[in-house]
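Hello Y.,

Per our agreement to keep a running log of every chain we model this quarter, I'm adding this entry. I've kept the format consistent with earlier entries: sequence first, then predicted structure.
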Amino acid sequence: MADADDPARRRVMRLLRAPPLALLLGLGLGPFFLLFPALPAGPERDSGLLPVALWLGAALLGGLAGALEGAGRPLYRAGCLILAATLLSPLALRLVILTDPGIPQDLATLLGLDGESAMDAALYEIWLAAWMACLAAILPCRLLLTRYRSARRDRPAGASRSSPGA
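Predicted structure for the entry above:
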């Protein structure tokens, strides 16, 4: 088993984690960059490719950061939480739109947007509120699941769920 301790093999295995982690983060972070409202640009500059470039850059940097020693597992966990919130956000968006909780729509004024871009900014804020609600619902569930797993693992193999005095 000398191959398992080989530093070159460990580095290669860490590098092999980068593409799936970049894909996971890219899928989860995609809406943050691609749904962001178009910022006003001068006539010499097209701002349409900027969100795509930022999205791909964030996914690639996240994937490459996963190749660092000890960073893969926490980044996979974070990527899974981000992707889960992203996948659940359309359902939460429907609930947010139906309940109308009164989300402040200040992004358009903050960025100096008007017209269609201001409407995109308002919709982005509503989606972001739905995404945060999903993440706020997922995190306690993950915490409870982790506690349940550790309690189940720590229980002796032959122990039953009922109390011993019953």
